[in-house]
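Sample pair:
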Amino acid sequence: MRKFLAVSKLYFKIQVAYRLDVIMRVLSVLGRTAFAWVLWGAVYSGRSEVGGMSFQAMVSYYVARSVLAAMVDDDPMYLVSNYIRDGAFSKYMVLPINIQGFFLFRALGFQAFMLLFNLLSAALAVLVFGIQFSLSTDLVQIFCALGMMALGLVFRVSYGFCLGILAFKFQDIRFFRLMQDNIVEFISGALIPLTLLPAALTGFLRFLPFYYIPYLPAMLLTGQAGDEALPGLAILACWTGLMLFITQKSYHRLRVKYDGAGI
């Protein structure tokens, strides 16, 4: 565990050096909030509710989702695949620690630094746009949302690592990149809250992990979808365990194809 904590500490310090990245992430949250404010302001013109959500609840959802999405936005797929192709992945294979654990604690160090700035950017967005932020007072919903975000980070890192190591077998994994980027953006509620979709489609999406990263936590923190909190936490825990197992097996099977000279 000491080695993993050292990895987190190292990448925490790295973020201190790259201040421009922090500024860009803060601007990203503000930009998404501004987009939601303008877009949904036009949609709500002459209406009090859309899909059972008021305008303030809708904008609150986008603020919460922007912050939570930034907290799990550390997908190592691009990094891993590029390292495999240029031969640099060898240095990670010889580390005296579990390689999945390395990338997970790397993400933890990164996100620990970003958490404060994500919260500050959300507070700034609320002040700038005069949002009446709807924060849940239900402790069960809040703890379930936080639990989902912790599991979500583990799932996203493991999922990204699993896709990244496909570079061991495939010459070009851009197809997998494009496919997962577009699908995940939709399923995770980045475009619209999933509650606005047909009930049958929403029911199907509840069986997929990205419904809970970060769509449902954002809904829970803004006081909505409370009946999905505990079942959602259980479903995501199952998906996270399964993803860790698949990634570990895939890595041990595919790494024998790597000669350390790139592909």
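DSSP finds eleven helices and two strands in the chain.
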